Amino acid sequence: MATFISSSSSLIFSSNLPSLSPPSSRLSLYSSSSHSLSSSLSLFISPCNFLSHQPTTKSRTLLPLSSAFTVKASSASEKKKVLIVNTNSGGHAVIGFYFAKELLGSGHDVTIFTVGDETSDKMKKPPFNRFSEIVSAGGRPVWGNPAEIGKVLEGSAFDVVLDNNGKDLDAVRPVADWAKSSGVKQFLFISSAGIYKPTDEPPHVEGDAVKADAGHVGVEKYISEIFDSWVSFRPQYMIGSGNNKDCEEWFFDRIVRGRPILIPGSGMQLTNISHVRDLSSMLTAAVGNPDAASGKIFNCVSDRAVTLDGFAKLCAQAAGLPVEIMHYNPKSIGSDAKKAFPFRNMHFYAEPRAAKEILGWSSSTNLTLDLIERFEEYVKIGRDKKPMKFELDDKILESLKVPVAV
C-alpha cells in the first residue's frame, strides 16, 4: 500500500559522538572557518600510522593521545604545483573543478588534466563548460589520455597529483607510476565510500571493513606501497553548481510538476549528501598538511545524515512547494529498481571522523540553505519548464494501483 507523508518536517540526523583522538597522529591548529592555506603550528605525536590502509577490522574506539610530544612549527603557505587528473563524466568531475578553484584561490599553481578531447560534446556540459573560471584564476586546463600522461605533460613537474578519474588499478597505475618516476611528493586519490561492506552499525568510519574485490581498494593498496606520502578520499553523494549527475534535480523535476516523490522502502534509510565545497576543502586541507594527511584514508563527506524522506521534504521546502511522498516495494518493478531512484535503498552513511581529528577540518554543508541555492539555479537554467517523461514513475504508480495523470 502506498504511504503518504506530509512535507511539514524533515528528518536529519547528526552524530553527537564524544571527541575522539587518534593514538598517534599529527594535530594541526588549523582554522575551521577557512580552508585557505595559512601558517599553522603543528603538534607531532608518536610516529605510528593512524588510519592507514592496513586495518580491516571494525574499530570504533580510538585510544587517548600519548602525553609525550614535541612541538614543531610548520608553514602551510608554501606554493605548490598541483596536477588534477579529472574524469570527463559522472558525478565526480565537479570535485576536480571545485578543487582547482580553491587551490588557485589559495595561491597554488594548478593544471587540470581532463580525460578525452577538448572538442568533444562532453566538454559542452558542466563543469567543463565553466573551465574559463579556472583559466581566469590562473589555472591551466589540458586534455588527453591518462595512459599517455608523460607525453601530454612532458617537461612539467608537480609537487602534488590528484587522480580523480580511475576506479581501478588499470586506470590509475599509469598516472601513479608516472607520478612516482617524476618525483611527485604527494599523491591523492578519489576513492568511494561505496567500497565499505554493509554494516549493522552505521555510520561507516575509517577502518571499517571494505569489499576486497572493489577496484578502489586495489588502487588504495597500490599507492600505499609505492608512495611515501599518499592520501585516499571516500566520497558519497554530493550536490553543487556544476555537477553533471542528477541528485537534487531528480526531486525538483517531480516537485515542480506536481508529481509524487516515489521512494523505495520505508523512506527512513539514512544517507549522506554533501555540498561539493566540503570535498574540495578537505582535499585542500590535505595539501596544506601533507605530513598529517600522509598514509590516511578520509571519508570525504559532510557530518550529518539525512533520511530519504527528509531529503525529499527539504527539496520541496527549497522550492516553496508541497510534496507528496509515496513508498513502494522495489521488487515490484524488477530489474528497473536501480534506475528508478538516485540513491541506494539502504542505510548508506559515512562520517568524516578522521578529517576532523587529523586535519582540523569542519563541514559547511547546510542542506536547508544549499538546496535553496540549487533550486534557484535549477529555475534559472529553465529545467523546470523542460518537457519530461516519467515512464518508470508511471510503472511504479501502476503497481501501486494509483491513477496516472495523462
Secondary-structure blueprint of this entry?
Blueprint: E1 12-14, E2 26-28, E3 40-44, E4 70-74, E5 81-86, H1 93-105, E6 109-115, H2 132-136, E7 140-144, H3 149-152, E8 160-164, H4 169-181, E9 186-190, H5 215-226, E10 230-235, E11 237-239, H6 248-255, E12 261-264, E13 270-271, E14 273-275, H7 276-288, H8 290-293, E15 296-300, E16 304-307, H9 308-319, E17 325-328, H10 337-340, H11 353-359, H12 367-380, H13 391-399
Parallel strand pairs: 5-6, 5-8, 6-7, 8-9, 9-10, 10-15, 11-14, 12-17
Antiparallel strand pairs: 1-16, 2-3, 3-4, 13-16
Polypeptide structure, described:
This protein is of the alpha/beta class and 406 residues long. The strands form five sheets. It has a seven-stranded parallel sheet, with helices on both faces. Strands 1-16-13 form a three-stranded antiparallel sheet. The chain has a three-stranded antiparallel sheet with strand order 2-3-4. Helix 1 links the parallel strand 5 and strand 6. Helix 1 packs across helix 7 and helix 6 crosses helix 9. The longest helix has 14 residues. The relative contact order is 0.17. The N terminus is likely disordered.
Q: H/E order of the elements?
A: EEEEEHEHEHEHEHEEHEEEHHEEHEHHHH
Helical fraction equals 25-40%
Q: How do the strands line up in the largest sheet? A: 7-6-5-8-9-10-15
**Which class of secondary structure composition applies to the elements?**
alpha/beta
3D shape? globular
> What does the average pLDDT come to?
85
Ranges with pLDDT <50 over ≥5 residues? 1-76
Number of helices: 13
Please summarize the sheet with the most strands. 7 strands, parallel
The beta-strand count equals: 17
Beta-strand residue percentage: 15-25%
The radius of gyration computed from the alpha-carbon positions, rounded to a whole number of angstroms, is 22 Å
